[in-house]
Amino acid sequence: xxxxxxxxxxxxxxxxxxxxxxxxxxxxxxxxxxxxxxxxxxxxxxxxxxxxxxxxxxxxxxxxxxxxxxxxxxxxxxxxxxxxxxxxxxxxxxxxxxxxxxxxxxxxxxxxxxxxxxxxxxxxxxxxxxxxxxxxxxxxxxxxxxxxxxxxxxxxxxxxxxxxxxxxxxxxxxxxxxxxxxxxxxxx
Length: 188
Hints:
Blueprint: H1 2-19, H2 23-40, H3 51-68, H4 74-84, H5 90-105, H6 110-125, E1 136-139, E2 144-147, H7 156-161, H8 167-185
Antiparallel strand pairs: 1-2
Helix pairs in contact: 2-3, 2-4, 4-5, 4-6, 5-6
């Protein structure tokens, strides 16, 4: 009984500490959650059915943190863009591109790669060719991964400026994904 009273006295402190969390630290926590999820995911198989909802919830939390203000560091902007690019909502992809570019302006070069992913994913959702080549789709008929169609006018120089591999390297990645998938599907 005594320990439950002590817990009840500490409960308001827990809420105050949580409320004092900065916008950047909230984004850091969401980013760590995303990293843990990715670390434990199987990169060859399709995401779970609830993955899109989880990405939306994280994106909503990022937007709330951004609305609170004080998210100005390259690191926080980069992490926010990574979380936002995980959704399938155009407005999140637009914001991910903006934040990714802003983080790159502040010396976080990985921000350009996230901006490229946002541009490509937005094009894919709009049924257009992607510019850089960051998006792969699973073709159920062929039972394999395919690089989503890429705009042939985009050069490897443009890709490299955005932190994206050359077209030849993208095709090699497609091949590696399919070899790994087939290897994982074989009975042991």
